[in-house]
Amino acid sequence: MEARDDDESPATPPSSSPPSAPTSAPTSAPTSGPTSTTTSSGETPSGSSETAATNGTPAEPSAVAAPADSPETTRRVDTAEAARGDAAQPRHPGVDPRGTAAAAPGSAAGPLPVERTPLSGRFTTPGRGAHAPQGPNGPATYDLSSAQLLRPSKRPPQTGWRRALFVGSGGLVNPGESAGDAARRELIARVNQPLHGCYKIAMLSLKGGVGKTTMTTTLGSTFASLRGDRVIAVDANPDRGTLSQKIPLETTATVRHLLRDANRVRRYSDVRAYTSQGPSRLEVLASEQDPAVSEAFSEVDYRRTVTLLEHFYNVVLTDCGTGLMHSAMKGVLDVADSLLIVSSASIDGARSASATLDWLDAHGYRDLVSRSVAVINYARRSSGNVDLDRVSDHFAARCRAVVRLPFDPHLEEGAEIELDKLASRTRAALLELAATVADDFGRAGSRVRRPMIPR
Question: What is the pLDDT of residues 410-429, one digit of tens each?
């Protein structure tokens, strides 16, 4: 009876048999009779436990169950999860993928997670993670500006043989911009510096024929062509000013009509009906052409005009007459942010400009003189024997800066002014003048205004 039971008993799993001495040759399990297998539900058939009881071995789960990390346990878990559809990843011997919850009974903690170190390759860059540098307020931040992220490249040239080479090669050969192009770009950046509020510039000179109207048009056109805001020039000459003749005339309205309809002006389009605009986007508000009517243009009228325009324009240029004692001139000087003192390249022109500064100093406008810019306009082709360097030194000692405007045949015509028809050196001088004036934009509105004294 005992022998029959031994012949029919199934093979005992390796983990449940007691340790024995190794044998020289392995023994094969019998092929006939029931064997210990795992069902699809992960349970061991009852025949195994009965056979173990028949052999006299206690059927204790702790003695029969395999260790948690053994291949047998892994095989049983895989089989059970495959039956439920839970198996997703291959199992690795020695690592319990279920974490601490599947740890063997009696163990203190489950296996530790495996630390994965990122590998560097063609498309992968290892990160530093917790080892990143720390700043005073936490992890250090990195500059993601365009200057840091974009590779430096040469600016395409704008003039000269460099431009011809760049265009001729289809952009393949870029020799970079010249020193002149770089200087021009810096001047344009100065012209376009921020402006808060309205900046008011007045053109002054005691002598006529020195080019005040020409300077008003060319400087205003330079600002309007380079800046994105609105620029307007006002003709405040009481003796039939010619400012409106420097650009194409679009309307016959004058400053007198604007003041008459001031109560109906609500938006920019309302003001635009009284101005003319040139190709450079400079707008001009003409003066009254009848000398008998222009005499009535007083300080009050000018103040009302500027108060209305500063709501719609960022730069207001005023072309003044030769007389410094008429009523409108006091309003011009009281509201101006800076002055342009225009002088011709002659002795009498320099003396008249210097006398203008003397008059301003004597009448309490010393602060305005210190913020003014002197312009030496070459109205003729040659200045003769006049030492213009000494003339420049004279005005530089009293004004903020001195700029020379070379002679230009297009300006000598006295007709409508177009910037594209000016010589290159004339445009360069105007750009430098505009940049010099714009350097004072940061002080717009900082000058103490004089209140109007009722008469």
Answer: 998 888 999 999 999 999 99
